[in-house]
Amino acid sequence: MKALQLSAPKQWEQIDIDEPSSPAAGEALVRIHRVGVCGTDLGGYLGKFPFFSYPRIPGHELGVEVLAVGEGVENVKVGDRCSVEPYINCRKCYSCERGLTNCCESHQTLGVMCDGGLTEKMILPARKLHPANNLSYEQSALVETLAIGCHAIDRANVTEKDTVLVIGSGPIGLSAIEFARVAGANVIVADLSQTRLDFVTEKMGVTNTIQFDGSEADIEKLEAMTQGRRADVVVDATGNHHSMRRALEMAAFGGRVVYVGITQQDLQFPHAPFLHRRELTILASRNALTRDFSRIIQLIESGVIDTDPWITHHAKFEEVIESFPAWTDPESGVVKAVIHVS
Predict the structure, then answer these.
(1) Which SMART domains match (predicted)?
(2) I need a labelling partner for 49 at 20 to 30 A (CA). Which of 3, 68, 259, 327 fits?
């Protein structure tokens, strides 16, 4: 059975692996149809993602078809089209006992800490499959990306009274924008790239955008949009430690700062003038919760969220090794690439 493996950073190999066996109790055998490519995959390819290990078969944004189910499986049946919740949790640790399955102490994300879906078929825990029979395989593959933004906005308890500044308008930033809008918030988007900001305006209807340049003008523009208050919630989706440090300066008094991007660098910021004086709350946001997946599937089905504009690039399985390097270039115009496996 064919699979694509990263043997080391920037080193793709097409390999043959064994066909999966029949699913055991609580498991399902699935056929992979679509795989979404996100920042984690790009970071793994470049050797810049902190939790990625090698050799590894990537792929965690998956649209799949159920081929067989094991004993006791009732949430899915053969033929179901599903989105995959790729966060494999132990169900035994203190985090899992409290329902914090997204930060299980033994957490394994498909395609990052264990092999993922860039292959033809795989066995998965059936509890990680979410039926999405009214969605296309492309839409099903994008549910996980949206779940990241959903969880980030939920972490900040965003309401219609809030002004939310999303810094970084890549796929994770876009997902945060979607759920800030679903919450009824006033949304402002900032990015270094005017091209990405144009996409946000043209495809998502967000008119309040700021092209950051790292100067004091960034704050002045934000204050001009917020009557001098700055943002009640700042979501940093860049993974850049300079941006993450500066996010505190963008927050209003009593504001919340959510870090949904990941950096391997230390974060340093002045305590007294920002964190203490403004009594800010800093929140980490990791992965998503099970409940987010069914909610997102319903929002796509109802037309509240439109994923079509997100997908800007496609590749067949056989084209990935040649196409992938270009997707790491911000100037390529890629927002979301989708790989057609089957």
Answers:
(1) PKS_ER
(2) 3
